[in-house]
Amino acid sequence: MKNKIRRKISLILALSLVLGMMIPMTVYAENEATAEASQEANQADLARPEIRENGNKDIEIAVPAGDQVTGIKASYMRLNSTVETEVWSMKSGNEWKLDRNRKKGASIAEDGTITISGAEIQGESMVRAKAVFTGNRESEEVIFQTGKKLDYKILKELVELNENVAVEDGLQLIEANSPTAKIISDPKNGIQIDEKGFLHGTPVGLSWQKGEKVKEFRLDFTVEDGTDKIRGRQIRVSVKREDFKYTINQPQPVTEGEAVQQANIISTNRPEAWISSGIQNGLEITGRGNGTLSGTPKDLVWEENITEKQVSIPVTIDYDGQEIKETVTVVVKKAKPNLPPSNPEPSNPEPSNPGPSNPGPSNPGPSNPGPGGPAPGKPAQQNPKTEIVKTDMKKEDKKPEVISEKNEKSYISGYPDGSIRPNAEVTRAEVMAMISKFKGYDVTDNSQPKFTDTQDAWYNKFINAVVKAGLSKGYEDGSFKPENPITRAEFVHLLIQLYQTADYMPVEPSFTDVDQNHWAKHSIDRAYQVGLIKGYEDKTFRPDQTLSRAEAVVILNRLTGKTLQEKDKAALDQIALSKQFIDLDKSHWAYYEILRATEQ
Question: Tens digits of per-residue pLDDT, 342-364?
Answer without folding.
Answer: 333 333 333 333 333 333 333 33
